[in-house]
Design goal:
With about 190 residues, the protein is an all-alpha fold. It is about 65% helix and about 0% strand. The chain starts with a strand and ends with a helix.
Amino acid sequence: MIHCLGCEKNCGELVIYAMWEARKYKWIKSQQNKHDYGHQAITEWFHDYFYQWYRNRLLEHFKGIRQWKEFGQDNYNIETQIHSKLANQILENLLSRGILNEQLGMIITSKDDELQEIIFILKKLDINNKRIEIQEECLSFLDEVFQEADKYKWIKSEEKRYDLGENIIDEWFNKYGIEFFRQKRKS
């Protein structure tokens, strides 16, 4: 299992991207409710949507669409490593079914001549060790990080007298993000 290290003030790229998605959800919920939906929206997104989002990122990694360092290099673009029609079918099954019961389901419904290959592919994918657990402390910490980035965006946008957009948040992460993480780690 991959543990979210956010509660230890060391969040991975994948979790930070998830937080971007949660913040979009927060913005939409706030617009719908005509008030700031706050941290509740972040928690709600992680509870309701994170699992599906995470599974899609895992499949992107397996299919070679995008490499996520949290999943490791050994199974990036696994389709080209295992030249098998069955490997592609397994990945499509994972995409359509979900991760919780699909491995057992594939083994149970497999033909006898495919069983060894299915087991080999599932071991190579090693999905059980790719699961992630995100603590509430991590969500609070990431929310605090993004609030700092938002303050920076607001100040810089006020200086220029127009909204500088999301690129300025990337600038904050590049200039100040690591130092902010270090300071928070000390406190």
